[in-house]
Please model this.
Amino acid sequence: MKTVVSTFASFVAIFFLSFSFVHAVTLTTAVSITGSASVIGALSKGSGTFVIDDPLDPANKLLFHSFVESPDVKNIYDGIATLDSAGEAVVDLPDYFLALNQDFRYLATPIAISMPNLYLKKEVAKRWFGLFGAVQFKISGGVPGARVSWQVTGIRHDPYILANPIIPEVEKTDTTIVKKGEYLFEGYEKK
Model:
């Protein structure tokens, strides 16, 4: 018998899957699970996060992030920057950004005005010589006083994800959620 758990404080359901029947139990308090859980079917929730030890202070802090579905363990940071009198903006990121992320990708889109010369002047790094200060990047080539929508993504490289990588595609075996030749959902069978 497999136990699958969805942890959401007010509507937590445990599904007992065995052969061809499903039972649901509603819990009205928070549930914590150590280990893996699988949900077959729809999962409705008020919010969803990952939680790890904060890479900058793992003994004293937890770090929560909302999750986005992707084959990568990608974190997304975004915002709106107002360009200074030189048509530049320095964007500060959270202190833990470099400890948590690698392989950055950037997007910058002008708002309400064309800026054909807009570009990324400095990639993500610590302010002073890349060693000290705030974690930031710099946008340049824009119109003074204009606004730019920006986005930076990074791939997680913290100890937890390195030890527990997500493998997007796996062969069905006797130890997967369903065995080879079985389906999670109807409609994939050969007709």
